[in-house]
Structure formats: structure tokens, C-alpha cells
Design goal:
- With about 240 residues, the chain is an alpha/beta fold.
- It has one domain: Rossmann fold (3-Layer(aba) Sandwich), CATH 3.40.50.
- The chain is built from eight helices and nine strands.
- A nine-stranded mixed β-sheet has the order 1-2-6-5-4-3-7-8-9, sandwiched between helices.
- Strand 7, helix 6 and strand 8 form a beta-alpha-beta unit.
- The longest helix is centred in the N-terminal third of the chain and has 16 residues.
- It is globular, with a radius of gyration of 17 Å.
- The protein starts with 12 loop residues before the first strand and ends in a 20-residue tail after the last helix.
């Protein structure tokens, strides 16, 4: 049965390098590959910050993600995340509930997109939401695609905010991508060293700006809105080993 809340995927827009909405920063990152979009493509031209974290996130991580989304909305910043369960959806939900805008970057083709139930009451596809894919419209989910789309998540943003990361996996890969693109990188500094947060501790020890409380979060978003520095000093590629996963 057709999902009445999600526009017909046949109406998905192709955004190419010839279109004014195509972010020029992606020309090099994606070699000029076209994008497929459902929703408000005008969001591609707004200041945005990306957020990532575990699908099986802890309760405190989910709270951080929701608060991040709300604070970003209050700063007038678009939230970019992956539409997956856990941290991604809480970030989308927080932003939308505060009247903000959000972009979901898909790890598969646009024809597989269905808006998740918990976001349906908040989404207006003509105004506050965009689903976007860098893959062929019929492409199925594959682990390598979930990793590759991190180029797009980071490339569209002023910086990356890591909520909760294991020692290996997609979130750490996204952090590495932020380092490669020389984007700002923040990570929540949890007081308790529990399992599932090993990546946060590693990133803070090497390359990420720690965020310990909501005041730090607000300052991080203020920094994101400021003009990006010529050199982002804390991002040193050699400090985050590619072999660490």
C-alpha cells in the first residue's frame, strides 16, 4: 500500500552540477555525480551540521541527539543525518520538533526511501525535510554504500558532531571523513567509560573537540555558524589512524 506521507518516488528530483541547487563543494568529492532528492532541495544551500552515532544508542546518547537537533534548529542550522534508528532519527526529530530543517542522507537508492513513522507528524516535504541519495535510484542497501555516503553527509556540512561511537564502524568512518575534508569535529565526552563509547574517547584523545555539557554544545553550534577558519587545528590526519576502523 502506498505511503501517503511520502511523495511518490517517481517524482524524485535529479540534482545535477548544472542545477543551481547543486552544492559546488561536491564537485570534487563526488566527481560531479548527480543526486536524487525528495523534498525541499533548497535546504542544500543552507548552513548545516551533521550528526552521527550508534543505531543501538544508549538512553543518554539519544537524549544528546535530540537536544542537538533542537539546539541546531534554534541556531538556524540544518541538521544532516542518516535516517537510521537511534541517534540519526532522534537528531532529525529534535530539529523538526523545534521548527527546524533536516536532511536525511540515504545509504541506498531514492526509490527505497520511506519516511519512518516517528517523523511523519513533523515532516513537511515542501518546507522542512529533504531525503537525498548519491546512488542509483534502484540501488539496494550495502555496507559499503553506508560508508561511502559519509562523504555526502560531511561534505554538505560545516562540521560533524559524534554522539556515540564504537571503536569501529560507520560513525568512526564518518569522523575519519571529517578529518579528510578538514571539517570541524566534535564528540560527546561522557563521564562514564561504558561499552559502546570507545570511539568517542579515541576521537577526543586525538582529533575531536570535547563536548561535556549543553553549554559546550551551544558554543559548538556558535562556532559552526561562524566563518570557518583557514586551518582547523585540531584535525590532524595522522592522529586518527585509518586502520582503527
Amino acid at each position: 500500500m502506498k505511503d501517503e506521507m511520502t511523495p511518490d518516488v517517481a517524482t524524485a528530483k535529479v540534482v545535477s552540477t548544472l542545477d543551481s541547487e547543486y552544492p559546488q563543494v561536491l564537485n570534487e568529492l563526488l566527481a560531479g555525480s548527480q543526486l536524487y532528492a525528495i523534498g525541499n532541495v533548497g535546504l542544500l544551500g543552507k548552513k548545516a551540521i551533521s550528526i552521527c552515532g550508534s543505531r543501538d544508542a544508549s538512553a543518554s546518547a539519544l537524549k544528546w541527539a535530540y537536544e542537538f537537533g533542537q539546539q541546531a534548529a534554534q541556531h538556524g542550522i540544518v541538521v544532516i543525518s542518516g535516517h537510521a534508528r537511534g541517534v540519526d532519527r532522534q537528531a532529525h526529530k529534535g530539529a523538526l520538533s523545534a521548527g527546524g530543517n533536516t536532511i536525511a542522507v540515504l545509504p541506498e537508492g531514492i526509490r527505497h526511501f520511506r519516511l519512518v513513522r516517528e517523523l511523519k507528524p513533523l515532516v513537511d516535504f515542501d518546507r522542512n525535510f529533504l531525503a537525498i541519495s548519491m546512488f542509483d535510484p534502484d540501488a539496494s542497501w550495502q555496507p559499503w554504500r553506508a560508508m561511502q555516503r559519509n562523504k555526502l553527509i560531511v561534505g554538505l556540512s560545516l562540521g560533524l558532531f559524534v554522539i556515540e561511537a564504537r571503536d569501529r564502524g560507520g560513525t568512526i568512518d564518518a569522523a575519519h571523513e571529517a578529518v579528510r575534508q578538514r571539517k570541524r569535529l566534535w564528540a560527546v565526552a561522557y563521564s562514564k567509560a561504558t561499552a559502546g563509547r570507545e570511539g568517542n574517547r579515541k576521537l577526543i584523545a586525538t582529533s575531536a573537540i570535547p563536548v561535556k555539557h549543553m553549554g559546550d554544545l551551544k558554543r559548538a553550534l556558535d562556532e559552526a555558524m561562524a566563518q570557518p577558519p583557514v586551518e582547523v587545528g585540531q584535525l590532524v590526519m595522522t592522529l586518527v589512524g585509518e586502520s582503527s576502523g
